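Weekly structure sync, notes
Attendees: PL, DS, HV (note-taker this week)

Item 1: Organic solvent tolerance-like N-terminal domain-containing protein
DS walked through the input record. Source organism listed as Leptospira sarikeiensis. Sequence as pasted into the shared doc:
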Amino acid sequence: MKHIRSVLILFLLFPFQVVDTHSRPPLLFSAETLDPKSFQGIGEADPKRKESFPTYWGANALTQEDREVQGLKVTIFSLEGGAWIQHKKVKLGANRIEVFGKEAYKAFLKNGVHIEDQENGTVMRAGVGEYDKYSEMVYIKERPRLTFRDKTGKTTVISAKQIDRELNTKITKLHGGVIVNHPEITIFCAEAVFNESEHLITTDPNPILLSKSRYLSGKKLSFYTNESRILLEENTVLFQTSEETKKDTNGEEKKETILTTLKGDKIESKPNEENDRTVTISGNATVLRKDLKIISDTIESVGKDSRIIKARKNIKVHDRENNLMLSGNIFDFFRNEDYMHLTEDGKMEFLEKNSDKVTSTITAQEFERFMDKKETVIRGDIRINSRSTEAQGEYATYFENEESMLLEGNPRINRAGKILRAGKIVFYPRDGRSILTEGVHLGN
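Item 1 (cont.): predicted structure, written out as tokens:
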């Protein structure tokens, strides 16, 4: 009985406890704040590596264990709750991070990955990530995206299936379903490289670019983010729609959506001094509109709706509506004003309606077309060549509706070696007819 009483006393004083050998150690709390105690550590430098450097890390909770990785015993630090790693001027954060080795040579980031380059403000986010200290690389997956702001304050967001960033060179490689969202343009491609030091994004072949009312494509793309400049090379094409006001046959105005196509060996798009978007096409440059085709060595389109088109060198302008071909070396088209200006070796050719056969040719120093009035004013050393007539003058006006031309300024006609002069000559370039008025006389 006495023995039983002793056992009972021991039981009451020292009750049995069930010990769970797999339970994690409890979080440590600060006696002053009752908040989880923060842990900080340092990834030691590896003496075997000349380029080695310390890496700092920290979190609200720390678990340490030894594992066998590829046949080697490795110490792993599991960081939880506001976990972070500081790699030089880059801070990597996540809800949970596993740090490999005392020198922190590798780390795996899980849930809510947030990486910030503190030197230039570039930010990366993803679901999971992998960090390699000695290659200075970070790889992120699960809806990864990269955000940066250029010197003008515009923000660009890039997304892909996987993003690999070289922390030392600041070169980022984007893989699979790449989308570059810029305030002025969106780029779609399979692969891309962002060279941050050069503010340059390059893509794999055949990217697609979309902006308001514009579609661009080409084999090679370079996007200079700080300048908002786009360079497309090889098999380049730009499609653009614009709403324009036209007059019908009754003179009533109506709005019409017009498609303009620009293509050439190279297309460059950038803002000009007035911050207006300018597109320059070089090498086999071509502009196609409903009734107009422009070919030149270089063509420049100004404005989001190409309201101004400038062409330089070896220009050919085919007006299919009026069966006219203009050529020269300096050409400007102001669409909103319905005005064309052509100079430097300027020439106008009249074509047959059912073919491209030339009926008459006019050369002069300057051509001005007022498309709303359907008139062309021609100035300076005018020379007309048709099937049976040669004419000269200093000033002329071509009326498109009547298909007639009024030649003035000492006008004269050469027929079979005879010079006929008059105050005015009315010339019909389609059939070569002419009418001389006001003081007609024969003379050299």
